[in-house]
Amino acid sequence: MLNVGIVGLGDGGLSNLRSLQSLGQKQARIAALCDLEDNARKNAIKELGEKVAECADVKELLKHPIELVIIATPDVEHLKPAKIALESGKFVFVEKPLATSLDDLFQFAELAIAYPGKLLFSEKYSFANPVLATYEQRGRLGKLVTGSTWYTMWRCDRIMGGGKWRTEHAYNPCAGGLSHNFMTLLLFNDSPITRVRAAGQVLTYHENLDNYGGYDTMEGGLEFADGTYVQWHICLAVQNDVSPFQHRTVSQSLQFKNGALLYSPDPLEDRLFVNGEREQITPEPSVAEWGDYNKLLYKRMHLIDLINPVCNSDKAVRRHTVYHGMNVAAACTLAFQSAKVNGAWLEIPRELQTYS
Hints:
Blueprint: E1 2-7, H1 11-23, E2 28-34, H2 38-48, E3 53-55, H3 58-61, E4 68-71, H4 79-87, E5 91-94, H5 102-114, E6 119-120, H6 129-136, H7 138-141, E7 144-152, H8 173-187, E8 193-201, H9 206-212, E9 217-224, E10 229-235, E11 250-256, E12 259-263, E13 271-274, E14 277-278, H10 290-311, H11 322-340, E15 346-347
Parallel strand pairs: 1-2, 1-4, 2-3, 4-5, 5-6, 7-10
Antiparallel strand pairs: 7-11, 8-9, 8-15, 9-10, 11-12, 12-13, 13-14
């Protein structure tokens, strides 16, 4: 059994809590919860339904008997608690995006070297049914040739981080949303992202956008080390239920040498073809069932990329590593910068293009 502490009890922290609780205590036990806000801690304890250590500071949390620390603080505040937990000898998992600045990413790169195998990262959509089906066929599909990927968040009038959606930092829709898509792309390409370009638009929420900087929509491109090019699009301007994406925010159309994936806005339209033959994809659920499915995605991610590496570190086969997280976070950071300079191609630093 793995004893876990969670730092940050907002949306990300609660998603991790629900998933770990559903795994059962033979797999993992939540031993301590940490948040600066009293109400956040009390709400998490109430949802958990049992008494665990309740801490206002990560150093206090580390006094309790735990092996793994989950960092689910606001995006710009991942580095400090992760560093403290690593220095105490713990395994550390960081929610996406790993960081929102190159400076923080360079420091994470140093931590990954200083504490090999201790810093964990993953992505829940890499465990979605259409992605799993495609991942299983990688050998037959051959090289990723090109594609397009979309992230459209519906009901964008909901408040997170004290402002418009994901405005706890400079309003970078790639870091807040499209990092999901970029991570899944790394499953199908054996080379890292090397450069990125972007253009953006401001459509709504002008007051918050003026305060935080950023965009409602962005589009651009990624180029990988092997020359593969993928287009991407993001929209965080939909304020109601009119989007065909609705609960399925991530969508992709990918062309491989020997096949193609359509990860559609409508789950009923998902298609995977290999060598001209249609492959079976386990259907994804309706909007009403999405909460339970989201928990399932986290459970799959936790078992493969958290629990397995911690409990079976010598034999663990991971879907993602922290180096994937660094590469994607760098792409998201530079996409935001590219949109500020009229869509120029920006190179990802060499240190953030490694997979080991």
